[in-house]
Design goal:
This protein is of the alpha+beta class. 32% of the residues lie in helices and 34% in strands. Strands 1-2-3-4-5-6-8-7 form an eight-stranded mixed sheet, sandwiched between helices.
């Protein structure tokens, strides 16, 4: 089992990844209600404020997953979240996901947060790989994932119906070996 009970503070050039705080809730609420976030994550627009607030107040207590706020250093506010969850003991892997709200888009913050989170996971756990799924109509996210080393390993066809059209979900993975090779080549 992987123990992710100690929530880190990870400081990058433009973002800080840190445990959630009570004052983050208005900003995460803004992210979760954003039409682009709803579309790209395949989420419902139904928003039960009380249950979502309760859920976020328990993120720092979880030992089997890592949920961190993405804080834009220039604004000093939460602009999204990174999550590593769904531990698979057999493959020694976990799922990765990221969400960037409207105040954090198109400035490289998602790319930096993704790299920081992935580096943290591979430096501080024994996981063999990270996996993720991204909808085909999200080329910006696919580009970021490929940029940090994820490769396509499968496609779930017609996984999401959006505005009367069926959208494929692209499954990707990043192995520890690929991450190590990327790190070696970065310097």
């Amino acid at each position: 089992m992987i123990d992710l009970g100690n929530k880190p503070l990870i400081v990058g050039e433009n973002v800080v990844l840190r445990p959630f705080k009570d004052e983050d809730f208005p900003f995460i609420e803004e992210c979760l209600k954003d039409p682009e976030v709803l579309k790209l994550t395949g989420s419902s627009s139904d928003f039960d404020r009380e249950s979502i607030l309760k859920w976020y107040t328990t993120r720092n207590e979880q030992t089997d997953r890592l949920d961190l706020a993405i804080v834009d250093k220039s604004q000093g506010i939460l602009v999204g979240e990174v999550v590593v969850n769904l531990y698979d003991e057999k493959s020694q892997s976990m799922n990765f996901r990221i969400l960037i709200g409207p105040r954090g888009r198109n400035r490289g913050l998602g790319t930096e947060a993704t790299k920081l989170a992935i580096d943290y996971v591979f430096k501080n756990t024994t996981l063999n790989q990270l996996t993720l799924s991204v909808f085909d109509f999200n080329p910006r996210a696919k580009y970021v994932y490929e940029k940090v080393g994820f490769v396509i390993c499968g496609i779930d066809e017609n996984d999401l119906e959006f505005e009367g059209k069926w959208i494929d979900s692209i499954n990707m993975k990043l192995s520890r070996e690929s991450w190590i090779n990327r790190e070696k080549n970065a310097y």
